[in-house]
Amino acid sequence: MRAEGVTEHQASGDRLRALIEEASQTIDRLTGWWFEPRWRRLRVDGRGTPSIEPPAPPIRLDRILIYGTELSRREEALYVRGAPVGPSFDAPLIRRTRGHFPRDPGSVELEGVFGYTEEDGTELGRTPLEIRRACILLVIRLLPRLGDIDAVDDARNRWRVIEERTRDQAIKFAPLARPGQLTGDTAIDDLLAGYMRPARLGAA
């Protein structure tokens, strides 16, 4: 954020870290994904088919348990569509090459590292650049302190300005509402639009 011109006067290091955390949590909540590697133990419903769709892209699968019994990875290869994601990624998938996952809610447990990251030549990948940009824009919108009403209003509505006339100070705003709004800021919403989690996936 310092590289983007945010000064110590505008926000201390501690406040900046807090704003970045708040913006990141907002993006996670709006998109349904998280965009960094996190170790998780996830419980998934089996569907009586060879495949399951985990609620987050697997980066590294440590263990798969069915009714508490570990599935041997030495005896059965798995097809895993996860992260770091490639250009054709649409949703995470784990498919068995032998047998089926039982048709039973919560019958499958997944342990490992999960998260929506993009390819950068490393094992874990990186936060997508568009997500990083959206986070920066959200932080800038959060920078004004709540007590500075004019600055808060300007930060939240600057994106809507389509015409300004300095002589009489007239300002023309774009319409506030549009279908599918996330944050209300089109610059941020357009960045997030390509990263929305499919509704069919289970809870993360």
By secondary-structure content and strand pairing, the structural class works out as alpha+beta
Q: Helices and strands, in N-to-C order?
A: HEEEEEEEHHEEH
> What is the oligomer described by this structure?
single chain
Q: Which residues sit in consecutive blocks of at least 5 with pLDDT less than 50? A: none
Question: Strand order, biggest sheet?
Answer: 1-7-3-4
- Kindly provide the radius of gyration, computed on alpha-carbon positions and rounded to a whole number of angstroms: 22 Å
Mean pLDDT: 82
What is the number of helical segments per DSSP (H or I, 4+ residues)? 4
| Overall geometric form | elongated
Distance between the termini: 29 Å
Descriptive account of the structure:
With 204 residues, this protein is an alpha+beta fold. The protein folds into 2 domains: 2-33 and 127-161 and 183-194; 38-114, no CATH class. Helix content is 24%, strand content 25%. The strands form 3 sheets. Strands 1-7-3-4 form a 4-stranded antiparallel sheet, with no helix packed on it. It has a 3-stranded antiparallel sheet with strand order 2-6-5, with no helix packed on it. Strands 8-9 form a two-stranded antiparallel sheet. Helix 1 (13-31) packs across helix 2 and helix 2 runs antiparallel to helix 4 (186-192). The model has no long low-confidence stretch (mean pLDDT 82).
